[in-house]
From TrEMBL:
It comes from Streptomyces dysideae. The chain crosses the membrane at residues 33-54. Residues 1-26 are annotated as: Disordered. This is DUF3105 domain-containing protein. The lineage of its organism: Bacteria, Bacillati, Actinomycetota, Actinomycetes, Kitasatosporales. InterPro entries: DUF3105. Residues 15-26 have a biased composition (Basic and acidic residues). Pfam families: DUF3105. It comes from the Bacteria.
Length: 218
């Protein structure tokens, strides 16, 4: 092969190599553009989903707070600040029956899901309410099946107690500090609502105080 032919062949190879390099660089640029584009789309999607998720979570929290502030339908309320909290001896003349707060005995009734089969002293039960318990009472208007259902529920719920109260007007009454609800049936959905809201609820004067180690009765 002549020198001229060799030079021509070398130039051709060099041109082909340059073309291959340009092609490879172009391919790399395309890949970078595609990668950046996909990354941007993914990031935008994640940001959008994150914002949506946070917004939904915030809305759910706000809804739960709003629901928590709503009173249970039919409940009665008393100003907790006006309910006495002194420890006293003897009986107390409460303005409501069962009482939902006021001066009370220094000993509380054990209220760790405790079911009493006989009436208990109101002055001791009120002390339990001060600790955040819900007191379930009933009279002879309540059906036996309802009494059993309530007893099963109370026995599984810490910071609750249950006892008969023949002097109350309603068949079934649920009392918390400053709150009270009367229902005719244990199947009433408001029973669960009241327990959920007021067992150790925001109305509790002494949240976390003991419900064990108090007085007991058979």
């Amino acid at each position: 092969m002549s020198r001229t032919s060799k030079k021509a062949s070398a130039a051709t190879r060099k041109a082909r190599i340059e073309e291959m390099r340009r092609t490879e660089k172009a391919r790399e640029r395309r890949n970078r553009i595609i990668t950046i584009g996909l990354s941007t789309v993914i990031v935008a999607g994640l940001v959008g989903w994150g914002a949506y998720y946070i917004n939904q979570a915030n809305e759910k929290d706000e809804q739960q707070v709003a629901e928590a502030k709503k009173p249970v339908r039919g409940e009665q309320s008393w100003d907790a600040k006006k309910l006495g909290r002194n420890h006293v001896q003897g009986t107390v003349d409460y303005p409501m029956n069962p009482p939902v707060g006021g001066d009370h005995n220094q000993a509380w009734m054990t209220c760790d899901g405790t079911v009493y089969t006989k009436a208990i002293p109101k002055e001791n039960a009120v002390h339990s309410l001060e600790h955040g318990a819900v007191w379930v009472t009933y009279n002879d208007k309540a059906a036996d099946a309802d009494v059993k259902k309530l007893a099963d529920k109370v026995s599984k719920t810490p910071y609750t107690l249950m006892s008969p109260n023949d002097t109350q007007s309603g068949a079934i009454t649920l009392s918390a500090w400053g709150k009270q609800l009367s229902v005719d049936s244990a199947s009433d959905a408001r029973v669960e609502q009241f327990l959920t809201k007021y067992v150790q609820g925001a109305q509790t004067p002494e949240p976390g105080a003991a419900c064990t180690g108090g007085l007991t009765a058979s």
